[in-house]
Amino acid sequence: MSAQSAPVRILGRSNSFNVRKILWVCDEMDMPYEREDYGRGFRACTDPEFLALNPVAQVPVVLDGGAVMRESNSIVRYLASKAGRDDLYPADLVKRQQVEQWMDWIAYDLTHALRGAFLGGVLQEEPWNNDWFINQGRKDLIHDMLIVEEHLAANGPYITGETFTVADISMGLVVNRWFVVEGFEKPETPALAAYYELLSQRPAYLAHGRNGLP
Length: 214
Ligand SMILES: N[C@@H](CCC(=O)N[C@@H](CS)C(=O)NCC(=O)O)C(=O)O
Known about the structure:
Glutaredoxin, four-stranded mixed beta sheet, alpha+beta
């Protein structure tokens, strides 16, 4: 990263699950940024000005020079690459794939499960708050988190093994939410609990991940 380059601009409310990943990776790397509130409770993502940047109408959006970026996991990887942080996002293709496979699975399977279990079951948000969807989300969430539990117990302490990577940023937000969801019987997950404490040694996780928000 050039010392002269302007800070990236993050558009998105700081209490958003997906914006928090961007704030975490920036703080993790001491990368400067500017942030502007968009999203629920602030300027709407459906404002024409915002829609022109992100037709999907979701936060975060990140602006870097002339580039306009959406999708939190992809942005996290971009920022780690921009900072030259091979430790967080390896250049080695096999190691990189190991990071990405977890981020992709989180973005699809786990996010879908959390829609039912958390957005529907806890926040009672429409359209996720119907009984079938909530119960299916809870079942899927337990199933998925037990996969992570077994994986960490056998291959931890971090998601890809010995060292912290951007996969732990995506998983860190999920694990924080896992310990907050309620209303159904959750299995004991000691490896996830240990992982939660391990991540909690990082100031940037305490600021943006385990910060009292689900
Ligand atoms: N796949 C997207 C999902 C983004 C997303 O779901 N954003 C939510 C907040 S976490 C949002 O924009 N909600 C509408 C709002 O805040 O107005 C990503 O990872 O960036």
